[in-house]
Amino acid sequence: MSRLLLVPMEDVVAFPGMSLTLAVDVGEEERVLLVPRHENEFAAVGTVAEVSDRVRLPGGPKAVALTGLHRGIAGAAQTLPDGRLYVEVEERPDDVPVDGRTRNLEREYRAVVEEILELRGDDGRVSAFVRSITGPGALADTSGYNPDLGYAQKLKLLQTVDVTERLELALEYQRERLAELQVRKRIREDVETGAEKQQRE
What we know:
With 201 residues, the chain is α+β, with helices and mostly antiparallel strands. The chain contains five helices and seven strands; from the N terminus they run βββββββααααα.
């Protein structure tokens, strides 16, 4: 168990592996727990993040650059007299399941993401980023970067600690996204074909 400063994230879900800068004063802390909060309700799982840099923003407020390390399950909390909230954290770095099912999910996830990127006309950067990720848990977390996922979906992904289950969930999200894009592409092609036909007539 670790005891970490809790940093609430209003309607934002930060994932392990993400880097972000927040306008918060974390004092001398080296690591904090980033916990999503929605309408004053805290999530049960947060992201243990390392303070990689301390910066001053224009106008003087303090800010920190953070890098997400792994999931942390929040336990008992204690508020200090200065109002800062500390929580007991059960740190949960991803295990790497080596069973066939996880491997198949990984392969399928990569294939679906490649198809999505092709449909969206990716210039190769996102695809190279996805290819560079080796761990199945981290691969599933790449869904967290998707702007099309809502807060509730991202939260569900963050709170799925089991790596294989998380990969399944991420794959489900990406499949839905692919189906939407394919429908849009079909509609666009039908419209274009219709327009060409009209012009010919």
